[in-house]
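agent> fetching stored inputs for the zinc ion docking request
agent> found them:
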Amino acid sequence: MTTGFFSDERCFWHAGGNYAFTLPVGGLVQPVFGGLPENPETKRRLKNLMEVTGLLAELDRRGPAEVTREDLLRVHPASYLDEFKRLSDAGGGELGLRTPFARGGYEIATVSAGLAKAAVRDVVAGELPDAYALSRPPGHHCLPDFPNGFCLLANIAIAVEAARDDQGLGRVAVIDWDVHHGNGTEAIYYDRDDTLTISLHQEGNYPTDTGAVTDRGKGAGLGHNINVPLPAGTGHKAYLAAMDRIVLPALEAFRPDLIVVACGFDAAVVDPLARMQATAETFAQMTLRVKDAARRLCGGKLVLVHEGGYSEVYVPFAGHATIAALSGSSIEAPDPLAAAVAARQPRGRFDAFLLDEVERLAEEIFAEG
Ligand code: ZN
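agent> prediction call returned; pasting tokens
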């Protein structure tokens, strides 16, 4: 058995339109062509790179599962689904915040969720050891009734809840290393003790008002939500320290039956929507750590679901390093910016500050239990 790779061309056809928001267009601001930072190229170029190197041919390539109305209703209210479908049929538009879609966006979003659903289903069934789902649009910002931050459906929650109902899946840990806070996943599972949600993110980036370390869950879910808000500028060493000091001990304590990673590549050093300094090697090393934890804790059951990442040049290399690490492949796509990104890594007093911050967060998180 080899790692599964789930993709579908239709996901690359999701369109947000010429929707500029990084700067307010008007007045003296000339409109920006293709202003929506979330576009198909990062994802398509990742798949293309994997094809060129031969990595894609090593994997077990599969397509989406059908996502039924029942699958969607486990996470989203009927009122939202109906309004989304109506506007999608009518030509598209915007129902939330920074989440525009074109005609047919509803169907494409269900294909994206269907990739996550199929990946979780086949790993839980033991058909695949682990898997990567190249979902688009992403899912981790989507609230049950409010699309947000390019996310139209909560892909991971839809996949996990389907596997719970259909296959008796039990405890799930979701590690979100997209650079933005996984507020949607957090909200969906905030009061539940069957799902551990961990988000590593740039403090105060997006959303600006969520992701605090003190947000630990409520009711039965108290202690089952962990936020790791990292300072802008965090690089390779501090990301791995956060994995070793916070994520891995939390996984050990929780003992999941499945680990899912909300896998964004926007913590990379050249990403236009964040200010972090992770490298392709950082993502590979984080993947190896989670893979090792999955092997020890849950028979290796691990699914990575694609989220953000906005550098058309760098996402393919970060993604290739990640998927090669996941599958244990020896095929490499050498990081074309390796020397430059290594030279930019935090050093001296700033490096010490970042490592101290990880230590301080670890103490705060585990002191509260
Ligand atoms: Zn992101």
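agent> quick read of the result: Residues 178-180, 264, 266, 307-308 surround zinc ion (CB under 6 Å).
agent> awaiting further instructions
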